[in-house]
Amino acid sequence: DTRNLVLITCVQSAFLDVMRRNIRDADYDRMGEFAIETLPPLPWPLAKKLLTARLDSIPELQRMREGQPELWPLQEKPLEEMVGAMGLSARRLIEAAAVQFAQTQSGEAPERVPLNHFLQNTFSRLFEEGEELSRGEIEDAIAQGLPLLATVLAPDWHLGNAAGLRDIDLRLEQKDRQIDISICMHENMIGLAARLRRLVARWRGSGQSRLILIRPPEMPIPKTAKKTQERLKTLTERGAALIHPSGEVVAALDALRKLLSDAKAGDLSHNGETVSPETVQEWLQQNLPSPVEDFATAILTGDQLDSKNRLVLGELLELLSREHVVSADEAARKLGISLDELWQTAQTHPDLVGTLSGPPAVLFQAVASRARTNE
């Protein structure tokens, strides 16, 4: 036990409004009753200390710097002018210093990368990081990335208030339309069955907001989970949709949220200039991987799979999670459906199910690949 405890928590400013909308007012006020502070841009004295610390963090360079001007081999005046009276974010300062350092090493100004290439390279790097997310991080990527994706591709949709809506993680709103989203990351089928039971009791379908259930394909619902399957079938018959975002979609959502967050925080810079959120949003509109656009379409407007075929897709993903590769004839037999129905379902989501036309026709478990944009 302790009587003196200080908790310090940090959040990027781009997510502060999301927190405020989704946390009860009383809880939010309690969290910030001591102080809510924003990290200001660095003034020159602090900026100089940061640069000195970075330079001295390399032992070999630290020895070379002995007896030299404080920021050697950097030129102090251009950096001080860049910081100016308004200050500068740490990230932009370090990037500008890195450019100057590279120029000092080579004797030439570094090649200026076109903005489009810079955004592509940054998105690809973030995408690769998103391929290694834990399950908790996958849930965060979906919960935070999906509203941003809707804003990018359909600006008339916005994030509504889901506070107090049990089992609903997100609410998207557009004029008089609502979409309630439940992210079902339960590993234990008892917990998932309980959530679906509550949703069955509360959500009747017709005349209410649309209901979307999201569950990654690598977490299939086994046929042995009878109660879970029954409640899922009831919800889909009422019009709910079960959507499986592929690993590629999740990684792209993670990259999108981080890229936009950095831009909104003023931490995304290119050739020494801040890249605005509007510029990033315009680039994303033209360059998101096609499976991400399909995912957004399935959520905002629905896709070509009806509720029955969505259940078939879920059963097929569960089969492939166990067998990985299976002939189309064998899969159709095990799922109790026609070959045409199986093939149509599989080819609707190539990011989830790989197909080889054969002969013999084969289905296999698709895995995430590196970011492929629509350039």
Short description:
With 375 residues, the protein is α+β, with helices and mostly antiparallel strands. It has 16 helices and ten strands.
Q: Would you report the number of β strands?
A: 10
Q: Kindly state the mean pLDDT as a whole number? A: 86
Helix count from the secondary structure assignment: 16
Ranges where pLDDT stays below 50 over 5 or more residues in a row are none
Shape: globular
Structural class: alpha+beta
Tell me the helix content: 40-55%
What is the alpha-carbon Rg in Å? 25 Å
User: Cα distance, first to last residue?
Assistant: 57 Å
Largest sheet: 5 strands, mixed
Order of helices and strands: HHHHHHHHEEEHEHEHEEHHHEHHEE
The percent range for strand residues is 5-15%
Please give the order of strands in the largest beta sheet: 1-2-3-4-5
Per-chain topology:
Blueprint: H1 16-22, H2 25-31, H3 44-56, H4 59-65, H5 76-83, H6 90-106, H7 115-130, H8 135-153, E1 158-159, E2 170-174, E3 177-183, H9 189-202, E4 210-214, H10 226-237, E5 241-243, H11 247-264, E6 269-270, E7 273-274, H12 277-287, H13 290-300, H14 307-323, E8 325-327, H15 328-335, H16 339-348, E9 353-356, E10 362-365
Parallel strand pairs: 3-4, 4-5
Antiparallel strand pairs: 1-2, 2-3, 6-7, 8-10, 9-10
Helix pairs in contact: 7-11, 8-11, 9-10, 11-12, 14-16, 15-16
Describe the fold and architecture:
The protein has 375 residues and is an alpha+beta fold. The protein is built from 16 helices and 10 strands. A 5-stranded mixed β-sheet has the order 1-2-3-4-5, with helices on both faces. The protein has a 3-stranded antiparallel β-sheet with strand order 8-10-9. The protein has a two-stranded antiparallel ribbon with strand order 6-7. Strand 9 and strand 10 form a beta hairpin. Helix 9 (189-202) runs parallel beside helix 10 (226-237).
